[in-house]
Each structure stands twice: as C-alpha cells, then as structure tokens.
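Let's practice the habit of predicting before peeking. Look at the sequence and jot down your guess about where helices and strands might fall. Then scroll down.
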Amino acid sequence: MKLLIYSHFFAPSIGGVETIVLSLARGLTELRNSTGAREFEITLVTQTAKGDFDDAKPPFRIVRQPTLVELWRLIRWSDVVHLAGPAIAPLFLSLFTRRPVVLEHHGFQTICPNGQLLIEPQSAPCPGHFMAGRHGECLRCNCGQGWLVSWKLWLLTFLRRFLSARASANITPTQWLGGLLNLPRVTAVPHGLAAGPAVHRAASPCCVPVIAFMGRLVTTKGVLLLLRAAKILHEQGRSFAVLIIGDGPERTSLEKFALDSRLVTRIRFADRLDGDQLEAALAQVTAVVVPSLGGEVFGLVVAENMLRGLPVVVSDLGAFVEVVDGTGVTFRTGDAADLASAVARLLDDPSAAARLGQQARQRALDFLSKSRMIEGHSRIYQSFLGASKD
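Done guessing? Here is the structure:
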C-alpha cells in the first residue's frame, strides 16, 4: 500500500507530534506481509526545513516544503493519506481526489480557534466556548493578536471542522479527546512508546527528594504553578529540591520568581537534557510533575516517565487522567495548593511512591506500547484497501 503521511512539523523540529510521526512511520515500514514484502511504501511530506537532519537515514522517503502541484501529485500517487492534524490544503486535496484520508488529531484545532482549548489572557482551561456557540468569547480570547487575526482563527476553525467531518477516519490518542471533538468515524489509538528498562536508580541517591519537570518553558506547561507549589512546600519547612529540565521563553520570568520567592537554593534549571545525561538526572528523581494548564491531548512526557517507572503527579486534565488511569497522582488543574498537597503525599511516603511508579510502568507497558499503536493504525489503513483511485 502506498501511504502518504503529511506532518506540518517534523525533524529536526522537536515536539510530541514530530516524535510520534517519526515513530509511526518507522514502525509501519517494519511490517511485512506473508511473502516478506513491506506492507507499506511510505512517503512523508512536511513543511519543516531539512536543517541538519539526514533525510537518507529513515527507511522511507521524505519530501520537504512541496509546492501545491507537487503535493497534488503525491496525493494522487497514494492509496491512503494520513494527516497529522487538520492541515487545510492537504485535507482539501485528499478529499477532492477521493483518496481515503485518515486524520489524526494532535490538538484541538477543530473545536478551538487557538488550538489549545485554553483561555489565553488568563492561561486557564477553556470550558468549550466554541462548541457551545459562545463565539464572542472565542474572539475576545484571541484578540491579543489583533482582531483581524482573531476573526481569521475563528473562521478557519469552522472550515477545519467541516473538512474533518468528511475524513474517512478520525484518530484520537485518547477517548476523552474523541468525545470532545464530536466528529464522525472516530477511533481512539493511544500513542505508543518502545519498551525500555525502568530508570536506573542511583546507588547512593541524593538525601534530598527531587521533584522534576520536563518540557518547554511556556505558559501552558504550568511551570510557574509548580514553583508556586514549591513556595508553599518551602514555607512548610519541607526538605526537597526541584529540577527543571527544558528551556523556553518563560525561563527568565521563572528564574526571577525563584529569586523573589527565595527558592534559588531549591530550584535548578538544567536546560534540555538527552540520552545518558537525562537518565543520570532522572536517577536522582523522586517524582515527575506535569502541571499543564491546557493544550494536552495525550501527555507524552507523562507516558515516557510512566515507562521509566517514575511516579507522576499530573493536573486533572481529561487526557492525563485517561493515560495514568489511577497509576499516578492527580491534582486540580491550576491549583498550586492542591499540587503542593499531592507532592507532599509522595514525600511523606517514599515506599508508596515507589509502588506507584511500578504500577505506572506496568500500565505503560500494557496500554501504551508502540506495537499497539502501529497495529491500530495499520488496521485502519488496510480497511481502505481496494478503495477506488482515479
């Protein structure tokens, strides 16, 4: 089967969508039929520039920044088109050429003009203004970018929703997201991770419990909320440290908050870590906190650390609750006091925290496996085998 995968963002860009798309494409190329031939001939199309990425390394063809004519030809070449998000041009062309189009939703672009399901001015979760018909709230939410931009985002949401409803299949990584989108032909296929060993605990762990954050330092990820919770724990006289792994535009303001709150001896900013450096840092960690305020449809960082066997403390966003399924600690989204209380429970009972980490790892191995993700997608593509082509 000739499969075209379109992802607006791809390597060398770094993010959850890029990670999942690369893993999916590689996994699909490994599938073989009864004769030993590959089940899928894959071409991946992206708008991301090549940079220092070696396009010859992956076992599939990569086409970058095609013209509309080139994109049209690639779609006509394919048997099935997979879109990583409701990108309007490839979605329209796929429908126009009557190709089976599988649309995987990595965000809220069909139900929220800013795609985050977040009220931007307050950095608060949105209750669903667009779907409830409260469109004035949507326009006011995004007017910080200018009223013209706000109106454009609002109108494009209607268009994306109209086109997405005509896709051959809509895939969501959580059932929770599928319920929110309320689109036809929705199937939940959880993102999958390659099985790996649990994090190797240091032989002589640090005597001070370490709470870690991993991700971009942007408002939606809730790092400031974590620091506010740390301030509460500090005022309670508890022994702990916070490790911030990542970088981003909020770093300066976060460092200022740590300084003003007299937390500088407890907070360490470690920039972005990879490979052995990351695993060495996590060997000292008591728990990983994911305090996102919104914009989450799955929670790749949550799943990755569950697979490592680390206890996770997550905001009670619907996607996170579904992914951890009782094997993590949840707190009320945006509530620093409740987050501090959740962390305190793990600090007070290290043995319970260790058991929770073991349960989280088993959940990840059973429910969030890469093979399950690959097989789920393959079944959907194969269901369109024999669909008519021009």
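How did you do? The mean pLDDT is 93.
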